[in-house]
Known about the structure:
- By secondary structure, the chain is α+β, with helices and mostly antiparallel strands.
- It has two domains: 14-21 and 36-242, CATH 3.30.830.10; 265-447, CATH 3.30.830.10.
- 42% of the residues lie in helices and 18% in strands.
- Strand 9 (322-331) and strand 10 form a beta hairpin.
- It is globular and about 60 Å long.
Amino acid sequence: xxxxxxxxxxxxxxxxxxxxxxxxxxxxxxxxxxxxxxxxxxxxxxxxxxxxxxxxxxxxxxxxxxxxxxxxxxxxxxxxxxxxxxxxxxxxxxxxxxxxxxxxxxxxxxxxxxxxxxxxxxxxxxxxxxxxxxxxxxxxxxxxxxxxxxxxxxxxxxxxxxxxxxxxxxxxxxxxxxxxxxxxxxxxxxxxxxxxxxxxxxxxxxxxxxxxxxxxxxxxxxxxxxxxxxxxxxxxxxxxxxxxxxxxxxxxxxxxxxxxxxxxxxxxxxxxxxxxxxxxxxxxxxxxxxxxxxxxxxxxxxxxxxxxxxxxxxxxxxxxxxxxxxxxxxxxxxxxxxxxxxxxxxxxxxxxxxxxxxxxxxxxxxxxxxxxxxxxxxxxxxxxxxxxxxxxxxxxxxxxxxxxxxxxxxxxxxxxxxxxxxxxxxxxxxxxxxxxxxxxxxxxxxxxxx
Length: 450
């Protein structure tokens, strides 16, 4: 998901200067990535801790990954996980309201958070000598957050305004919600993390407290620390700040069930914010970590890997029936979603764009991909794998993800092997398997006169 909380622009700090310098000197490509070494252990209360010592820069990232996302919500109270992403910047027992970001900014750092269907993640980036500050703040938020009327009412308003800005008042803003609703009808992926304003409006303080007490527990979290820090001293800080908490009640998670898609779903939406028509064609994909998920990502590069991708070449360059074309791919913990998008050019019709997208998909289904396209897709994934883990934050995010969803943090070093096993035939096979005509969702947005 997109980041939901952004700090105000603050004075140039040591951290931002260092990032600028390191970006300049990190341009040359490396032939391969050195193995990322890490240590991991569990506190008695169940908190999983991962350390990766990186002395390439005098900075450190503390990342706390909670295994709670929108799919863990009551269908009548959607948006709770995202709401807590905001509420966690309110007061704690020892931190007054509106001061968490000031503590971090004053130390020359920055912090942020994001929510998806399966996770909520908080991270703090600081100069290396400030790791103790980050751990203190995260420990306070874990079990000492004030879930009370002042903070809750403040964040209700902020979350509602965010929804208005990103969805209700945005061009084609409802496409993501409609896509999820129809691709995952009947399961807990049928709503998106932003949730419903009405649900947040009527929720009570006690309901918010119950959600916090259920999911914000040490045994439902992974703490990752990456950077230039003293492992011995930092381990003592972790135990001092987080070891004081008891293990939370074991979370009873409902079995995830996907209903079979019975037929194609089509909807035409009139949008007063839209200036041009648009077509969104969605398909259900494989879950995170499934072998087909790697093939789908490579196929995504063939279809929409920049201006050389098939969709851009056909719709924008050759036929000139679209001003923009791209794909949207998400592999979730229990399923996936992939969508092809075309913004219709003036004087052209959504039907022309839709037909051309299908024809490009069918070409792959019938003829497969070329050697050149396959090699480009493989090179793209290799580049992402290597260069997507160059800074401390990216490595912290990867370690948390691999541990939480795969139970193997070492996938940070080995995941590329899954891509290396994919063949050209696999790309053709998944195109046939997942791009099914009778299992797609087609949303057409057309401008409506104001």
